[in-house]
Amino acid sequence: MSCRGSGEELEQEQHDLRRSVGGESKRVRQQNGSITAPELTIDQNLLVDPKLLFIGNKIGEGAHGKVYEGRYGDRIVAIKVLHRGSTSDEKTALESRFAREVIMMSRVKHENLVKFIGACKDPLMVIVTELLPGMSLRKYLVSIRPNKLDLHVALNFALDIARAMECLHANMIIHRDLKPGTH
After folding, report:
1. Is 177 a catalytic residue?
2. Which catalysed reactions does the entry list for this protein (predicted)?
3. What phi and psi, each to the nearest 5 degrees, are found at residue 110?
4. Which of 22, 70, 96, 171 could disulfide-link to 79, CB 3.0 to 4.6 Å?
5. 80 labelled as ligand-binding?
């Protein structure tokens, strides 16, 4: 098991990312008091052709967008469609968050994390990942009721989740939405 993106490689990528956004010194204070960094640039190699995306049934929803089952070319994928925002400041903040998420997902790889396939910015802000078969942990736990989860199975689930979180934390990423219903 490996966690790509840690150690010296991480330090170099963080340096490159800071340099690509102009570092801390070029942040701009907005009229509303918020501070924004210059626009992050998403590498063109990370972008997918929106003409090859087909969005199917909704499989999840969160504060920042909706997740759909879909297709990218001949692959079945998960497609996260992010909210665009309604005000100029909101749009800028959401586009910056989108760029950070795309850059982060493209750099971190681990067997217990979904694989990043690509993203597109127009006409929608979309992140495309592998679609894992099966169901969320929450649905699984409900499906086995009234039985309890076997201790060894529970420990394996916990270890898999911990290893994925360890990889994220080694890359200075905090998930902030870990729950049994997360797909």
Report:
1. yes
2. L-threonyl-[protein] + ATP = O-phospho-L-threonyl-[protein] + ADP + H(+); L-seryl-[protein] + ATP = O-phospho-L-seryl-[protein] + ADP + H(+)
3. -160, 145
4. 70
5. yes
